[in-house]
Fold these 2 entries.
Entry 1:
Amino acid sequence: VVGELTNTSTLQFRCGGSGFTAYWQVVEYDSCDVQSFSMSFSTTSSTATLTAVTTTKTMILGSHSQNGNINIDDMPRTELTNSTTVTCTRVGTSSTITYFGYAVEFTDQTTVQHGTLSFGSSDGSASAAITTINTDRTLVYGNVLVRSATVVIL
C-alpha cells in the first residue's frame, strides 16, 4: 500500500489488492519543510534527487508497493545518503518496487541522527552510539533490509 497526498485535501492509497483497512495519520507541522519523491525500480537500488537539505535536520518517511510476490529480500531500505540524494536499496530483485516518500526537514531545534547498524549472523541485538537525547521527546523510526538496518532518531 502506498499513501500519497494528491492535493491539499485528498489522501490517496494505492495497492494491488482489495478487502483491507488502512489506518492512517496526517501530521501538519509548521516548523518543517517537506519534499515528496518517488522511484520505481526492479534492480537492487535506485535514487531520487532532492533540493538540498540539512542532513542533521532531515528524516525520510515513506511507503512502497511492488508487483508480484512479496519476498523478504525485496523489502526496501531507504536512506538520506547526502544533502540531495535519497537511496533505496534491497537484496532481492524478484519484482518491481514503487516507493513514494517524504523528506522532512525540520526548521526548529529538532535534530535527526541517522546511520546503519549491522547484525552478525547469530546476533539477536545490536547497539549504536548516539548523541545524548531527551527520551521523553524522542522517537525511533527505522526500516530494515535483510542483513542490515537503518534507525532514524529525532
Note: Confidence is low (pLDDT under 50) at residues 145-154.
Entry 2:
Amino acid sequence: GDVTVHRCIIDNLDEGVYEYQVGTEGCVSDNYSFEIKEFNESQPMRILWTTDQQSWTKREYDVWQMCARFLNAKQQSLEEPFDFHLNTGDISQNANRRFEWSYYFDYAKDITRNIPHVITCGNNDLVDKKYSTAFNYYLTAQNQKWNSVYAFDLGFVHFVCLNSNEDQVYSGDGKEFANTNAFLEAQAQWLDEHLTEVEARPIQPRWVIVFAHLGPFTVGRTKRLQRWIAPIEKHKVDMFL
C-alpha cells in the first residue's frame, strides 16, 4: 500500500522537553516527546548501538521485535536513558521489499519515537543489492555528501558516517565515479578535507567517531576499505564503529 513520509527539520531548539504529533488533520498520531540536552563535562553521552536486523520473513523479524521490547524496557528503567540510537546498517535483507522496512520501524517505534535514530546504509539496504535509493526514504540528514555519507556534532563529539558499499547510485558507467574503488577513494579524500576543517574550528570536539556498515579494521571482506585508514590515522580519529 501507499505510505506517506513526513519530514521536518527544526533548528536552534532550546534545551528542554518537547511534544509532537505526526500526521495530517483528522489522522494524527498520539502525543510523543523528546528531550533536547546540553552535554558538558559532567553529562556523559549514552549510545544504544544495534545493527543487522535483516530478515527474510515476519517470523525472523519477530526476533528484532523481542530485542526492541527488551531495549525499550531497558530505556525506561535507566536513570539516565540512551541519548540516541545508532544503527550501522542492514535494516533490510533486500531493500526492494518494503515490508522489511515496515517491520523494522514498527517494532522499533517505542525506541525511535523518543530519541534520535541515526542510521547507516548497509549492503543489503541497497535496492537490487546495487542502489542506495531506498536509504533516502528513511533518513533525513543534514550535511550529507552522498547517501550514507554525512556528519554531525552532538555535545563534545563529532560523528562521521561513511558508505562502505559497492553503491551503483554513484559508481559505474555514466555515473559520478567510474567504479566502487573511485567512490571509496573520493570518500577518503572528503574525510581528509572534512576533518581538516573540523580541526580548524576555534573549539574542537573532544572525540571524533567514524562509523559505517563495514570497517577497515576487521578480518572480513574489507580490503577495498583500506584506503580509509590513511585519513583516519592522519587525523587521529578516536573510534571507528
Note: The chain has a mean pLDDT of 91.
